[in-house]
């Protein structure tokens, strides 16, 4: 009898220890879940400014709301409606102007597929593949490419945005008397487009700049001939109105 009682006592002590461990595990799980909950709540409270502005601009454009008082979503946390309205209105106006430019260009060319368009935080990029404008390894504008540039020039008449013409090549080396490397080739091509827009369409030279990037800013890896053809291009970038300040300062410093 005594042995059975002693055994029973040890068994009860074992049950108490097991119960204590289960309680600690449950408590630890609860604390872990609470920590995860607060981490998720914190992550949800952090708003990406660029994504927020892009969403707001898209909604305003889709519902044709033009005034700052007609915002479809609340201002970004920390902003007052008045402080946020000016840059947002400028961004919305830029986007509408870019859409008008795209429509005018597409209406003025025979094959709209010869030109690609992209709108991002810099502005509107009008992209020409090099085979459209130039022969391989040359920087003289092809005669049949001039109507495309004329359509761009006509669409940009009256616009006050600053414009950057950027030349790009693939990674195949070039060694000629005119073009010792792809730097010279890409720069010469961007200058050819810039000069045509100025001389043919009277665009303000102070608002245009030419850049040659060589092969160092590819759109795709230069692993196939198809990708190399896509990387050989000239981009005409219509900068957003809020990008003008840096360009103005640059021109002032050059005077």
TrEMBL record:
<keyword id="KW-1133">Transmembrane helix</keyword>
<dbReference type="GO" id="GO:0005886">
    <property type="term" value="C:plasma membrane"/>
</dbReference>
<dbReference type="InterPro" id="IPR036737">
    <property type="entry name" value="OmpA-like_sf"/>
</dbReference>
<keyword id="KW-1003">Cell membrane</keyword>
<feature type="domain" description="OmpA-like">
    <location>
        <begin position="121"/>
        <end position="242"/>
    </location>
</feature>
<dbReference type="InterPro" id="IPR006665">
    <property type="entry name" value="OmpA-like"/>
</dbReference>
<feature type="transmembrane region" description="Helical">
    <location>
        <begin position="21"/>
        <end position="44"/>
    </location>
</feature>
<dbReference type="Pfam" id="PF00691">
    <property type="entry name" value="OmpA"/>
</dbReference>
<comment type="similarity">
    <text>Belongs to the MotB family.</text>
</comment>
<dbReference type="Pfam" id="PF13677">
    <property type="entry name" value="MotB_plug"/>
</dbReference>
<dbReference type="InterPro" id="IPR050330">
    <property type="entry name" value="Bact_OuterMem_StrucFunc"/>
</dbReference>
<protein>
    <submittedName>
        <fullName>Membrane motb of proton-channel complex mota/motb</fullName>
    </submittedName>
</protein>
<keyword id="KW-0472">Membrane</keyword>
<dbReference type="InterPro" id="IPR025713">
    <property type="entry name" value="MotB-like_N_dom"/>
</dbReference>
<keyword id="KW-0812">Transmembrane</keyword>
């Amino acid at each position: 009898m005594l042995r059975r009682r002693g055994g029973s006592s040890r068994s009860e002590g074992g049950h108490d220890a097991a119960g204590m461990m289960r309680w600690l595990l449950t408590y630890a799980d609860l604390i872990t879940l609470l920590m995860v909950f607060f981490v998720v709540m914190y992550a949800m409270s952090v708003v990406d400014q660029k994504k927020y502005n892009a969403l707001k601009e898209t909604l305003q454009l889709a519902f044709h709301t033009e005034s700052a008082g007609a915002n479809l979503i609340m201002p970004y946390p920390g902003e007052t409606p008045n402080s946020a309205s000016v840059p947002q209105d400028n961004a919305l106006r830029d986007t509408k102007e870019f859409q008008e430019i795209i429509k005018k260009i597409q209406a003025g060319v025979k094959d709209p597929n010869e030109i690609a368009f992209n709108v991002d935080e810099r502005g509107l990029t009008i992209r020409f593949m090099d085979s459209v404008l130039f022969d391989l390894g040359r920087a003289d504008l092809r005669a049949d490419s001039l109507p495309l540039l004329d359509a761009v020039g006509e669409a940009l008449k009256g616009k006050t945005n600053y414009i950057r013409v950027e030349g790009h090549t693939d990674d195949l080396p070039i060694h000629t008397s005119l073009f010792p490397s792809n730097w010279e080739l890409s720069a010469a091509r961007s200058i050819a487009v810039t000069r045509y827009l100025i001389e043919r369409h009277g665009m303000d030279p102070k608002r245009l700049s030419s850049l040659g990037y060589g092969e160092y800013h590819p759109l795709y890896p230069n692993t196939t001939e198809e990708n190399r053809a896509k990387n050989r291009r000239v981009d005409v970038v219509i900068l957003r109105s809020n990008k003008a300040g840096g360009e103005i300062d640059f021109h002032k410093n050059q005077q």
